[in-house]
Amino acid sequence: MIKLPCPQQKWTNFGVPNATAVIPIKFKKVNATAIAPALIFNDVPFRSVAQVLEEAYAVKLQYPENLSDKKITADLSGGTQEENIEAIAFTAGLQVYKEGTVYYFK
């Protein structure tokens, strides 16, 4: 199934091959965690997934260096910021906790 952007959405890959995101472009005041971009990763290194999530959610992800090259495949369409970051942690076999705008993967 191909998901096409609707009006007031744009497609991006944040410069990361094999990653896609459909994000809203309508400007309105809303809590960042309420925005649910469609994020899809297909065999993407964890460091690139982290980069996309950091840009999409305006957060920082701290993770073990040995995780950088681990390949991640995930469809995070429709999830909240918290759910999506927890799903990536689960996929990587890690736990995650948050302090402010920083997520720590252990």
UniProtKB/TrEMBL annotation:
Q: Which domain of life is it from?
A: Bacteria
**What organism does the record attribute this protein to?**
Chryseobacterium taklimakanense
Q: Name one Pfam family in it.
A: FecR_C
Domain Protein FecR C-terminal, chain residue ranges per copy: 39-101
Q: What is this protein called?
A: DUF4974 domain-containing protein
